[in-house]
Amino acid sequence: MRGPPDEGPASPQTEPALTAILHAMLGKGLGGLEQVFLDYQPILEAYAAAHGGAATGVVRAGGRVAVQQADRVPPLATMPAHTDWDPLTVGAARKIVRAAAPDLILSHGQRPARLMAKVAPAKAVLAVCVHKPAFDVETARTHYVCVGRHLAELAVERGVPAQRVHFVPNAVKAPTVLATPFADALKGSEGRPPRIVAAGRLHPKKGFDVLVAALALLRDQDLAFDCEIAGEGDERARLEGLIAQHGLGDRVRLVGWRGDVPTFLATGDVFAFPSHQEGFPLVLLEAMAVGLPAVSSAIPGPVEMIQDGVDGALVPPGDPAALARALAGLVATPRKAAALGLAARAKVLADYGPASLKRRLDAVLDLMLGRA
């Protein structure tokens, strides 16, 4: 049995290593990816500060995040984002990396991940936040922070070592507004039809054409309703054409982007989410957080968030008839709809709030930086 070591000369105390983090996101808009970046940034700043360092956030010059956050303290760095190989963009990235001297570079999206990998210091830890199933795979060095469990499983299937794959689900703040439970709303609004709301980028993968077809079926069943879809995108003209083709112009409106999404969602009685592909959708979390009963496509991402019949309803993707049946079922049973909405809100507040995000992200930072 080995005893305690002999006491020798006192060794000098080792100073704790400082931590510098570079956090990059080069999106143009202000969608889910951009919001996750904004949610991460203060957590990274607090983590780096606790270890004597700093976290530098980097965004696209002229992008909506740069404009919205122009007065932020501390400020976000900006850079051009033409390609991940042109000399101007690579030079700007190299300059930012040289100034930050990062121990960890965390990127959102493939362009900053490819770009920063080109200019990263040899000893820096590289990580990419995965928001959707299409992503590059680099098996030797990069960590993958996945917003959905299905994305984490996909990364492992594609060859990333499991110890460098991390699951950190998205989160939303507790809203300051709440949807009026459907049963109560009907009492106070005699003659008002039930309101179905939806929100998201007007893109084919969001399935709003499926929703329009489902609404036409509800109209044909003489079900009273109105519907508002918030968002913009290349599908606007096509969706306007489908609404007109189905004769739904007096019931279905495309209302554009809404600056305060929870306030918009809280005007509804039921939330429709007919998407074909998702990571861990923020707008679905936001709808659940305001207490809306949600009908969602049963696809990876939403199936991790909703338990069918307990805190929402799940239907096969791309099936207007199934979506119409589920929406009609909630409209016909307002007390059940209200119960689903309350259960959904409770789940989001318990599992997907800012405190949960910080706890999970801090733990992953410890792992990636060798502190766990």
Q: Could you explain how this protein is built, in words?
A:
- The protein is elongated.
- β6 (143-146), α5 (149-157) and β7 form a beta-alpha-beta unit.
- The chain has 14 helices and 13 strands.
- The strands form 2 sheets. It has a 7-stranded parallel sheet, with helices on both faces. Strands 10-9-8-11-12-13 form a 6-stranded parallel sheet, with helices on both faces.
- It folds into 2 domains: 20-171 and 353-368, Glycogen Phosphorylase B (Rossmann fold), CATH 3.40.50.2000; 182-351, Rossmann fold (3-Layer(aba) Sandwich).
- The longest helix is centred in the N-terminal third of the chain and has 19 residues, at 32-50.
- The protein is of the alpha/beta class and 372 residues long.
- It is 40% helix and 16% strand.
The portion of residues assigned to helices is 40-55%
The CATH superfamily name of the largest domain is Glycogen Phosphorylase B
Radius of gyration, Cα only, in angstroms? 24 Å
From the coordinates shown, what is the CATH architecture of the largest domain?
3-Layer(aba) Sandwich
From the structure above, extract its key features.
seven-stranded parallel beta sheet, 372 residues, single chain, elongated, disordered N terminus, Rossmann fold, 14 helices, alpha/beta
Summarize this entry quickly.
With 372 residues, the chain is an alpha/beta fold.
